[in-house]
Design a protein that fits this description.
By secondary structure, the protein is mainly α. 66% of the residues lie in helices and 3% in strands.
Length: 142
């Protein structure tokens, strides 16, 4: 039963749960960024470059069998080796956007976490013998 107890303590630690939540949110956030890149950014970039669809940019490295359409999906299904550099460009843009967004989030979190300046140290306690000497001095002045 000791191993089960250790596992339960490990599984409910804050760090493990935080990591699990981070992975789940990261996966969902990655899908959002994929959609932004594929559905919003790349069509605009393709339009700027003359109605170019980056997802279908490829170079055929072998010979395509007769009757197979010259599209990326069809060639891959036929087992023809292709160099899909358009897909790589899309994923690279996706990564750059995701990295920038994460950088901005971490920057904001670090800005919020900055330690407040330490309070000024309290005045040092005067030793008792010095206090007695001051009392004697003050009484002699009178």
């Amino acid at each position: 039963m000791g191993m089960m107890q250790e596992f339960r303590e490990f599984a409910v630690k804050g760090n493990v749960i935080d990591l699990a939540v981070g992975v789940i949110i990261g996966g969902a956030f990655g899908k959002i960024v994929d959609s932004v890149v594929a559905d919003l950014i790349m069509p605009v970039v393709g339009l700027v470059f003359g109605k170019l669809d980056f997802s279908n940019l490829f170079v055929v490295l072998g010979t395509a069998p007769a009757g197979v359409p010259n599209t990326l999906d069809a060639l891959r299904k036929a087992g023809v080796p292709v160099l899909a550099y358009g897909n790589f460009i899309t994923i690279a843009v996706n990564f750059a956007i995701l990295a920038f967004i994460i950088f901005m989030m971490v920057k904001q979190i670090n800005r919020l976490k900055r330690a407040e300046p330490a309070p000024a140290p309290a005045a040092p306690v005067t030793p008792e013998d010095v206090m007695l000497l001051r009392e004697i001095r003050d009484s002699l002045k009178k």
